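User: structure tokens for Limb and CNS expressed 1, please.
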Amino acid sequence: HCEGSEALQQVADRSCGHPIPGGVQAILQEFWESKQKQKAIFPSEGIIVYESLSSLGPPFVSYVTLPGGSCFGNFQSCLSRAEARRDAAKVALINSLFNELPCRRITKEFIIESVREAVSSTSGNLKDADDPSTSIGAYHYMLESNIGKTMLEFQELMIVFQLLHWNGSLKALRETKCSRQEVISYYSQYSLDEKMRSHMALDWITKEQESPGIISQELQVALRELEEVRKAGQELRFYKEKKEILSLALSQIYSDQVTTSSWDDQMSLALHGYQ
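Assistant: Done. Predicted tokens:
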């Protein structure tokens, strides 16, 4: 698995003791700037964002979000925030370079293989691939719609649908008799922004009223998943978005009940048992 920790560890080992001029963060920036010039991407979409988790001491955790939204974190245990940022940039750079390989582009051959894998993993039927009203057919339709794109680009488009599926919104839409093609066409126009996150957080607040404790349960799962995929050196936006949506829902629930000063205590209680 090219995105896995073994491949990343080999690159990390080889780079030890051999400082890169300008640093890995500068190389990552240059790589994406050159891509933007080739594709004439708008400057607002071209920002690489670093984010460090607040921590009193090591190990430190840092995330880097690439233009388009793909997100990576440091997979090594880091003793400083600067080291965590460098390691996250290294993981993002390796994955960015790997994403340029021909094997990472959606082709007819890639689609056939992916649909076969999806059928075998779900015990589905290959005939379903031609029927967009089925899950396999919808997946086939989305792959066909994005032929020529790289896997990171495809993942960026899929993130909204992954979250809608996790959130239960896709199931609710099916119950209103919307076709999968209609749903795909509608949400393909939308990017994941603060407004969509707020809507999803409100959905979880409703779920919390029906099943008290469900948000903190889901948050514990999301935090565990996020840590696992980060340590494996894999793309982790789906898990990070889940964490942020659930944290937003919790903060809205407690904002009416507690003062800002006791928010950290409430968060600790909500996540009691995660460690």
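User: Anything notable?

Assistant: Residues 5-103 form a domain with the Double Stranded RNA Binding Domain fold (CATH 3.30.160.20).
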